[in-house]
Write a structure and sequence with these properties.
two-stranded antiparallel ribbon; 11-stranded antiparallel sheet; single chain; mainly beta; 2 helices; 2 domains
Length: about 350
């Protein structure tokens, strides 16, 4: 017994969910790596003798890392890395290219890289808290939701900096200052990459120590989940018959099967199991229990199955309690699941 759903009874709604993670400098086994990026000459480049941060499962060369992030996130269309007052934000690169994100790469940077399996679609903006307590001073960096990283201890001066540097919500580079509390780095949410670009003594080693008292990073991963709602409407006097073998005399069954492989349909111990083998054919019952002929006999709904166009079962909705299918009333059952 099948019934095609009306398209208006199908509602598919995507929504975003977030999961908070906290990782530390000792979590490299999970794929969270911290390493440095340092600019230098590439003439006659040779890996031998290059500064490198090595983990059991990965190695990061400092010179190569600098050129990687420079070309991915900081290089402008005209090839310049350093921004002048007349220029706008970097364009045509792998970053978000938000005009609310200020980027400036010095000759070195500190990088914390998070694997996609730990951030999903992207890191949720305004969820990052990078705390470094590897020195006598504890530094906590947070993001502003636009991909800028700043020192939480100077949040007030950062707010002044940002409000004074924005013109209609876009960075005006003629208003930038070098005051404490300005941008100390960037976050590239879709790639799970955090870059501390400030080379001052307070920030140069943030997130880089690999000791027991190093850093911790708190953030939220983002995923999109789709909610499926199917309104299954049973009209008056619909689905008032049953294929359940409990209505047949002595539970003898209500389907016919035949063929050499039909024994696979029946478990050991069934009435058909005789002399170590199964019968290869079975005829449906023709006699039913007396209660079936009663005028008040109505099936009870316990489960609803959803099938595709190839009659393949794709989802089953179980009711919390059996519901009587009254022939004089329509019945609506909502099957809801997330995927």
């Amino acid at each position: 017994m099948f019934k095609r759903l009306d398209p208006s009874d199908i509602h598919i709604t995507p929504f975003k969910v977030y999961k908070e993670f906290t990782v530390t400098n000792v979590d490299s086994a999970s794929g969270v790596y911290n390493f440095r990026a340092v600019s230098g000459s590439t003439q006659n480049f040779n890996l031998e003798g290059q500064n490198v941060t090595t983990y059991p499962s990965a190695s990061f060369y400092h010179l190569s890392s600098w050129f990687l992030i420079n070309n991915m996130y900081y290089m402008q269309k005209n090839g310049n890395t350093k921004l002048s007052f007349e220029e706008t934000n970097p364009i045509d690169n792998f970053g978000s290219n938000s005009n609310k994100q200020y980027r400036f790469l010095h000759t070195s940077a500190s990088i914390v890289s998070i694997p996609q399996k730990l951030f999903g679609e992207r890191i949720k903006p305004k969820s990052i808290e990078l705390t470094d307590d590897s020195t006598d001073i504890t530094v906590t960096l947070v993001d502003d939701g636009d991909g800028n990283l700043y020192d939480q201890a100077y949040s007030a001066s950062y707010a002044i900096f940002k409000s004074g540097s924005l013109e209609n919500g876009i960075f005006d580079y003629t208003k930038l200052t070098a005051t404490t509390g300005s941008v100390v780095g960037n976050v590239f949410y879709e790639h799970g990459v955090i870059v501390v670009t400030d080379t001052g003594s307070r920030y140069v080693d943030v997130g880089q120590k690999r000791v027991s008292d190093g850093y911790s990073l708190k953030y939220k991963a983002q995923e999109t989940i789709t909610e499926y709602n199917y309104m299954c409407v049973v009209g008056e006097n619909e689905f008032n018959s049953t294929l359940n073998k409990s209505v047949t005399l002595d539970r003898s069954g209500s389907i016919s099967v035949s063929g050499s492989e039909s024994w696979k349909l029946f478990p050991p111990g069934d009435a058909l199991y005789k002399s170590g083998s199964y019968k290869h054919s079975y005829n449906a019952a023709t006699d039913f229990e007396g209660f079936v002929s009663h005028s008040e006999f109505r099936p009870y709904v316990t489960k609803v199955g959803l099938y595709n166009d190839f009659n393949q079962l794709i989802a089953v909705g179980s009711l919390s309690a059996p519901v009587k299918n009254d022939k004089d009333l329509s019945l609506s059952i909502v099957v809801r699941f997330d995927a």
